[in-house]
From TrEMBL:
This is Probable membrane transporter protein. It is found in: Cell membrane. PANTHER family: MEMBRANE TRANSPORTER PROTEIN-RELATED, TRANSMEMBRANE PROTEIN YFCA. Coiled coil: none annotated. The keyword Transcription does not apply. Belongs to the 4-toluene sulfonate uptake permease (TSUP) (TC 2.A.102) family. Keywords: Cell membrane, Membrane, Transmembrane, Transmembrane helix, Transport. Its main location: membrane. The keyword Protease does not apply.
Amino acid sequence: MEMIEPTTLIILGLVAFLAGFIDAVAGGGGMLTVPALLSLGLPPHIALGTNKLAATFASSTAAWTYYRKQLFSPHFWQLSFIATLVGAIGGTLIVDIISTEWLEKALPLIILAAAGYTIWHPQPKGEQRQLPTDDPKLKKKQWLQGGILGFYDGVAGPGTGAFWTVSSMALYRLDILLASGLAKAMNFTSNITSLITFAILGHINVALGLTMGVCLMMGAYIGAHSAIRFGAKFIRPVFVTVVVILAGKLAWQAWF
């Protein structure tokens, strides 16, 4: 890849900071960072791998923040960890065998679908600040949810955090803060798993990923604290605004 101009790096850093903030608030930071990396002319495999390196910074920062605020219980969600890990490995391996040409055409559509689902899917109103009952039905939900979303994060990634938040509120009747805490921890699990797999396959631009990762981490730190402080009334409008703008931009690029 050619050397990136300093101005371009600064813009990417700002995009990454905003993406880290958005991702920590409601998920979906990849809807900003993946198109930004693709705009540099990176092959889709490299763009996805580099995004995983950068995203791991953000998801680890956000997950740790929610854990410290006692909004996530690792022991209770251990089956979700395992299912997400397995799904992420499978998804990342699938990416490696998909042709670059097919991936270039599919990625904008995947991002648009993720954006549309997040905006128009009705938001369940999680009202309880407690964990669900631990029973066989819960375990099945954890396996299914973790496997599917881990696989999706391994294949593409954009919108995974938002999908975790929405589905966790619907499946377990969690309030949005507990659902966000679960989303950040599982997003970190699939990110680090995919990152290791991408690294083994050689699909990462390390310098670019680290640069964006530091900016994502700073944005994630501020975003997670803002979400915890201001709650759902803050989370929803911020996320919807950004996704609407991005969805319009992607639609224009893909079809006009």
